[in-house]
Amino acid sequence: MMKIQMFIYPGMTLLDLVGPLQVWSIWPGADVQLIAQSMDPVPTDSAMSVNPTHVLDDAWSDPDILFVPGGTEGTFALLGDEDILSFLEQQGKAANWITSVCTGSIVLAAAGLLSGYKATSHWIARDMLPAFGAEVAEGRWVIDRNRASGGGVTAGIDFGLALMAHISGDEKLAQQVQLALEYSPNPPFSCGTPAQAAPDIVQSVTTLFNAEGAEQRAELLASSVSRYQSRFGS
User: Fold this and answer.
1) Among this protein's residues, is 191 annotated catalytic?
2) CA-CA distance, 188 to 122, in Å (whole number)?
3) Is pTM beyond 0.90 here?
């Protein structure tokens, strides 16, 4: 059995979770836990909530895969939650794989789980990783030893397929899953990365992100970096 443990929390980005979850749900022998602080439905940044299957105390202590999705305000709130960071730190000690999509890597890094590892995140947040000892790497997914991270939001499907192939050692399995999902991206615009998008589009997205709760995020980030340095060293 492949024990996949996915931590979910208020304000997470729905597709960060659902992309790899959909892929891994087809993995033969996989069992998935959706872990939350309570059994109440977990609101996401979309008009949909997710039902947990287990709470922290009931979670496997030795998952094969530990996974954290990203988000914006909800993700940064986790950076100030000592209980959650400690939980993830403890789970990471026994997990075979420590993984994330989007800004979930920032949370893992703040829990001390990416020190000395290459990792990626959403393009607007990647530069935060070195403050927690991680090395920034660009790509839709990055695998460094037993750490795997995906880029922003839609990269979760690519990440899920790549990690499935890597762990199973069977590219045909991942290819079968990709075909079953009819995953053949053909976006209407070529502007999915800052390198592809026009400068004014990049600026408008950056401005939007910085306009909403930027000061509070900066405070939470600074506090979390201070905690990391005190706990794990600079």
Assistant:
1) no
2) 21
3) yes
